[in-house]
Amino acid sequence: MSRTIVLSERDNVATALDELATGDAIVHAGRRVVAIQAIPAGHKIALGPIGAGEAVIKYGEPIGRASRAIGAGEHVHVHNVQSERGRGDRRLFEDRAP
Amino acid sequence: MSASPQPREAAVFAGYRRAGDRCGVRNHLLVVPTVICSAVVAERAAAAIERELGRGAAVALPHLSGCGQLGPDMQTTHRTLKAYCRHPNVGAVLVVALGCEQVTARALELEAKRAGKPAAIVAIQQEGGTVRAQAAAITRGLELAREIAGAPRVEIPISKLILGLECGGSDATSGLAANPALGWAADRLIALGGAAVLSETAEILGAEHLLGTRAAQPATAEKLYQIVSRVEDQARALGLDIRGTQPAPGNIAGGLTTIEEKSLGAVAKAGRSSALESALEYADSIPGPGLHFMDTPGFDVESVTGMVAGGAQVVVFTTGLGTPTGNPIAPVIKITGNERTAETMRDNLDLDSSGILSGRETLEEVGRRLLELVAETASGRETATERLGHREVAIFRRNSTI
Predict the structure, then answer these.
(1) Do A86 and B175 touch (CB under 8 A)?
(2) What is the pLDDT of residues A68-92, one digit of tens each?
């Protein structure tokens, strides 16, 4: 089985230590999660569904928000997670908003 | 079977005693240009002295600053250059001046002499050009280097060490293996009475509360949060998204999604148990034992340059993807947690911590090995950066040149 690591009980993602192929299963806290797509080594897989706007948790801390709904076993990365910090672009947009 | 005995722990190293109870791990002649205009002469003179007396006998500190700067940037340049002139890893100082610049050669020479080091000045305009100044710098530099060459290494408690904590070229292994191993070593060094300094404000965004709650004084936490706000305000004032640089493209390829994720892995370098004693401005002197934070950019070379200016004698630099940079006066120890990088970049690395992820070694075992390597390095063992001549310097600047 490919190795993954979950750093805190609060986490909703696991980090793949080896690449996961589509259909590979990992077991965390008694729950079986199947990778619905390939997850490169070092990348994250959702342990359960994460709703759009919900916090993505790793190290027991929020690392950003889901920019759209993420399904269990999905690759969690820049395509579906947004940072909440250092976002000068967002503030500028808000400042300009009527 | 009985428990294996506790591995030997180095509580001392063999270093150089300097004036004012400071201790060095190297004994370089520092050839410091006051301004970029004299950097080439300084570099050539240092290289000639090294050819004569051996690797590391002289090192140059080439930098891009020294003129056309105003206010805080000028002060930062002065503060950084002065700090290198009095640094305990430096045995003597040769200032190479142009003659008309803002940074005055006299002030740097004085700073070195106040720290008990022999020092001299060679000025290009006075000597009459590059060729004559270079010859004079080599002659004067050789005298200074020979004067300090016989300085003995003596036994010094490890509590005299200030360890710089750096990470660069991070990937997902950094926060899982190399950074926590370094954190273990930093906590242990601090428990033995030493000091460690963490930096790179942009790379604690999203994890600042983990450091703030460890502050020894409420004012320290407040200062830390102010420093963090300053960086975020800067991004806001520019209307820029920090994601343009954080995480860097290589970080993203390595699996790091956001700056928060990168930061949570990066602060692991600061360990878990030590209290945060201070939050410092760039190149400020590290005021005592314990853990400190210094405001530097997330750009590794500016960060290491600042921590060494603060007094760090040894830097440990964790890297997932592999990065070669060093420093002119402080040995920079490179450690990776990435199995593949450990193989492909082995010439640039001093320690492999990938055993933590493969289960071959525990975090504590690697942490102990790392602290042992820090003590050996402090005693004179060459790092990969020193062997390969990586001596990058960059002094932090906020504003444009006037």
Answers:
(1) no
(2) 999 999 999 999 999 988 666 654 4
